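Lab intake sheet, docking and co-folding queue.

SAMPLE TYPE: protein with bound small molecule
LIGAND NAME: flavin-adenine dinucleotide
LIGAND FORMAT: SMILES
REQUESTED OUTPUT: full 3D complex as structure tokens
PRIORITY: normal
SUBMITTED BY: R.K., bench team

The fields below were copied directly from the construct record.
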Amino acid sequence: MMPRTPHTGSYYAATANDKNDRPRLQSAIDCDICIVGAGFTGLSSALHLAEAGFKVVILEGARIGFGASGRNGGQLVNSYSRDIDVIERNYGSELAGALGDMAFEGANIIRERIETYQIQCDYKQGGIFAAFNKKQMHELEEQKARWEKLGNNKLTLLDQAALREHIDTDAYVGALLDNHGGHIHPLNLALGEAAAFESLGGQIFEDSKVIRIDRSPRPVIHTSEGRITCNYLLLAGNAYLGGLVPELAAKSMPCGTQIVTTEILGKDKARSLLPTQHCVEDCNYKLDYYRITGDNRLLFGGGTTYGGGDPASIENFLRPHLEKVFPQLKGVKFDYAWGGDFLLTLSRLPQLGRLTDNIYYAQGYSGHGVTTTHLIGKLMGEVMKGHAERFDAFASLKHFPFPGGHLLRVPYTALGAFYYGMRDKFGI
Ligand SMILES: Cc1cc2nc3c(=O)[nH]c(=O)nc-3n(C[C@H](O)[C@H](O)[C@H](O)COP(=O)(O)OP(=O)(O)OC[C@H]3O[C@@H](n4cnc5c(N)ncnc54)[C@H](O)[C@@H]3O)c2cc1C
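RESULT FIELD (auto-filled):
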């Protein structure tokens, strides 16, 4: 027996609800729709498609939730990595209107999935965007006005005193609370969605890395031991797709970000840090994000490694960030530290489209994909039922390669981030 690929050594993998392996693909199968990748993009699409009655097969190169979806901060952040004002400036008001109408749908889809399929993933309502300075606070005020226009009426601005009721820190000048957001144990959400998909007859093959795709009238997808012939193919490998599809690699860049979890703090200590248990992300260009887990640890993430991968010591890298927000946790023991890759695009907006009439792709949520992947899954369901308008709104976004080509894109992007980091530092 060939050994199975393990999950990365995360808190999530240690507390996964379902540790069962799925088989490798070792035969030739025919189906309506084949999906490459069992992250949120693949699973959410698969579930919508199975609900619509399609025969769907997922090929996963490692494990369900092996990529960003099983490793992330678990924050249900609304809208996109670039907000509607930027979309309007760069792409015009019509497209901004179309994307704005969908900006709050992903979080509702997740809540509906949890409810319908009774998924145990520690869901908690409420997310906070925390400002370090007046400039960031002003931007949050504008964000609130924009989001209210789009129908989100669950937003509250918090001054420094009001914020203390939510976070026990002096680090921020104020914040925006979004009660339409929230947080989850992402690997358990992925595993719950996988089980829901399988309960509807869907098949998932793990350790079944796709090594070749024949772009024939009916695409044929090859693994080392089997193949699938399908009417439609969805590529959902995101940052882990590597060079399998050169067109998709050309206009995107993998980036690493890292997370630690403390030892179990106990309910009282955990509540003293985040009394209302909302998750938090700060407003810096390279942001930190954190929340309390279901078993009362502080889960704290941050950093961006352009090009992907992790720093030499995740603990040493993140400890000063954590202790700056919570000096009362100085020296706290970390039980888990891990990293994962997300896929950055130059526009910071997702890339959706078709390589041929029947090969679709969706990727590049730029670090902001928990809700958007769930929206995209619904759009894939719509497309296959003959309603492509909303998918095509995303597909019409123009995307460009990073400056500097493959060799220089990492240093160029890091330089840009350094510039924005300095602006954050000095509040300009
Ligand atoms: C550490 C971290 C923290 C984050 N925190 C947040 C957050 O709090 N909130 C938020 O909104 N977003 C967050 N993100 C981003 C978010 O997790 C991603 O945008 C989202 O999960 C992407 O989902 P996906 O399904 O497209 O990709 P992935 O989850 O990466 O899934 C891709 C899957 O495809 C498989 N695959 C790739 N190539 C092949 C192949 N050739 N054959 C078969 N299978 C293949 C991979 O093994 C993988 O399982 C974070 C990301 C990271 C890494």
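REVIEWER NOTE: The CA atoms of residues 238 and 363 lie 5 Å apart.
SIGN-OFF: pending second check by T.M.
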